[in-house]
Design goal:
Blueprint: H1 10-16, H2 19-47, H3 50-55, H4 60-64
C-alpha cells in the first residue's frame, strides 16, 4: 500500500507557530516553577526549630513573612 504524502507547505508552517503563545507559555512555566521553589523554601524554613533558625540568623517571624524570601540551591 502506498501512504499518502502529508507535507505542509512552508508558507503554512508560519501560521501554525504562534511565537506570542509560546513565549506566554514559557513565562507561565517559569513563574510557576519560581512559585513552587518559593513554597518549597518556605516549607523547609518552617520545619526548622527556633534554635536552628537562630543559628542561621532568622527569627520565626521572619520566616512567616513574605518580606524575607530565602533560596536553597
Amino acid at each position: 500500500m502506498h501512504s499518502p504524502n502529508f507535507t505542509i507547505p512552508a508558507r503554512n508552517i508560519r501560521s501554525l507557530t504562534r511565537p506570542g503563545l509560546v513565549l506566554a507559555a514559557i513565562r507561565a512555566a517559569r513563574w510557576l516553577a519560581r512559585k513552587i521553589n518559593e513554597r518549597r523554601n518556605r516549607n523547609a524554613l518552617m520545619e526548622l526549630s527556633d534554635e536552628q533558625l537562630k543559628d542561621i540568623g532568622l527569627s520565626r517571624g521572619q520566616t512567616e513573612s513574605d518580606v524575607h524570601v530565602y533560596s536553597r540551591y
